[in-house]
User: Fold this.
Amino acid sequence: MSTLNPTAGTLAGHGHGDGHSHGAHHNPGFISKYIFSTDHKVIGIQFLITTLLMLFVGGGLALGVRWQLAFPWRELPIFGRLIFGSQGAGISPEFYTMMFTMHATVMIFLVIIPILAGAFGNFLIPLQIGADDMAFPVLNMLSYWFMWPAIFLFGASFFVEGGAAAGGWTSYPPLSDIQQAAPASGMGQTLWLLAVTFVGVSSMMGSVNYMTTIINMRAPGLTLFRLPMTIWGMFITAILQAFALPVLTAAGFMLVFDRLLGTTFFVPGGLVVNNAAPTVGGGQALLWQHLFWFYSHPAVYIMLLPAMGMVSDILACFSRKPLFGYRPMVYSMAAIAGLGFIVWGHHMFTSGMNPALGMTFMVSTMMIALPSAVKTFNWLGTMWGGNIQFTVPMINAIAFVSMFVVGGLSGIWMASVPTDIYFHDTYYIVAHFHYVLFGATLFGVFGSIQFWFPKMFGRMMSERLGKLHFILTFIGFNGTFFPMHLLGIAGFPRRLADPYQYPVFEHLRPLNQGMTYFAILMGFAQFILLFNFFYSMFKGKKAGRNPWNANGLEWTAPSPPGHGNFESVPVVYRGPYEYASPLVEADYLMQTTFVAHEDRHIDPDQIAHHA
Amino acid sequence: MNRFWCLFFVASAVLAVVFFYIGPACGWWFPGVAASPLGQQIDDLFYLILAITGVTFIGVHAVLGYILWKFSGKEGKRSDFQHGSHTLEVVWSIVPAGVLLFIALYQMDVWAAFRMKSRFDQEALANPIAEVTARQFEWRIRYPAPGKVLQDTPQPDDLYTVNDLHAPAGKPVVIKLRSEDVLHSFFLPHLRVKQDAVPGLVIPVWFEANEPKAYDLVCAELCGWGHYKMRGQLTAQPQADFDAYMKKLKETQFDDGFKEAADE
Assistant:
């Protein structure tokens, strides 16, 4: 009860100046404080550090893929002799298929989803809504620890017979269904499915927790339409996960049953693959694609909406100006989430499903571009007339907007079926989703790390190193991924270990080599981030409570906040974007600041008209 | 330093445009003009969307550049206290909605022409030239005997090739696409045709090659470790040459090594 209603119970008795320790929480020992912690901040930081390390694993796999595309069958530097010493130190085609499969798997399931929902969701939700912790702290701790079996299973799968899963992260049956279909369709694929189930359980525990916390534990005065966009992003993402994940989990189990128990959900009867015994019964390979994308298309927004929210906060703060069109921003985010459930078929235009469905999915997919456009215009509106400060979080946020525009616009070719006939399964798709998931989401994440780092560790990250990291990453990123649009227009297919087998793609080799050099640059630039992160944790400049002069509730807590977060219950008088308010001298007005003559019954939109 | 960031983002956008501009000259573009009538329609749609998205991209980045130039670097300046504009929201919702809906509806016809059986050339649909069966890692092609119609089940007089598909040029032809094991995808980049092969389904695919020429046949759906080498070829030839090829194929295939003695 006390955790569900913190403002009335646990927090009420505590006055100002209580410092770090909080009366309602005993001081925990080392293990329960830093390892099996139920404190949302520690769990958030655990998620952050884990996912940052996974970023290097996924990035390493990507560099392997890039190497093969630039110099197929040539000796892989450094690792080649170690891994493929017996076969000439070049990447084998089997291993190539494993690399791109596991690159996507690691980046999606162990980096992007957990860094947004796990790291920032955990750290920011209670702080930004004025709660002392999550609604279910133990569940929260479990959601972190359920990631580890997945990490171990993904890792172990490289060492089982046949190697790690190699059917693409989409794992389309029958390749992923029939054990004999490929060397890696054996044990590796089973482990992959188990691991994905574990991450699914982890996400689901987070999702229930976030929804409950955001609905029940907001500080007094914090109405839904006074929430920061970050919280809206996390809230909508949690709802998306709750509705989409069960479908993937169920489909995953069906696939496991096909593989181990002899059911045939996803393969037709009488199929003989590589002299395996013929399948008995009769299912439909396309069923998996429907179920998979019913989860995985909403998952694309799970990988984007929280970053959109965080970037909105950053853009408003460093434009020193209220967020433009707060309610349209919330509604468009909700619209993206809602429409996200009826567009999955656009991944299947060439799959052989009923062509009439292609038309409906094309219209719904086109419509989802609309709220994305509205958001972009509102971000520009936020900066317009502001007093822009080019801090590291801000330049990353601007990059988010710029790259999101590229990723959004290239999506239009995929949404329209006729052009998608040509672009499907080419590098155009690869360019598109990297612009959304790296160009938008990861730049948003880099900005957010720098922005909330002082709240996490009480110290600032280096601006100088942050800018260097940004410039190198931005150049490396665009140098790697922008040419992929042109590769796609040239018809260059994805997932080929040696595309130059085809004379029609032979002339694209030099372009691919150039892209690989940019990818290597981008990869090495991430060590700057890593160094900046850990160096600043101990040696960074000390930060006060509110180093950015921002408005949100998290900035009223100490940096870092103690167990229990706030010394007293924050009372909220307004939304988080009242920068440059005429009510006060300073150019920011915190959500908790009481202003005597403020007419709080006036809608903020109306104030704008008066001003 | 403020100006630097404005120029940095503007320069990256300009480079993007330049890259698209020089792409065709560097060969980083479509593999030639579309070699089929449907492909030309797809290319036209591509260029239409390129125009719309290009204008949007340049417009958004011009505004972004202006904002970064104009609204930065003024110490102590107070921002406008502005929460939004109902009119602007309405305008920038309705305009993109109209454009997007236009793109969606405008495309339908080409899609219908490609995939709706009622829109196929009915004669070609009734007489498919071949059954193409994808398997790890090759294309198996089954033609009906010259003068016969392709049956669903293999016939004793059917003709077979591997990775070598021949078709008459200059008219729509239909193949029946199947898969023997996992998913594959029948991709003719020059003709802008792509269709997945799904085990358990028989999918009719039509295409029309303008020129009598050889075209690459690419597998575009991951089908296992050897996916990269699943290379085939489509040879489009004039009808007479095609008929001659079929006749020769029949002769080669049914040659039992026994030669009749010369008459008398």
In short: Chain A is about 60% helix and 0% strand. The longest helix of chain A spans residues 93-129. Chain A has a mean pLDDT of 91. The two ends of chain A are 45 Å apart (CA to CA).
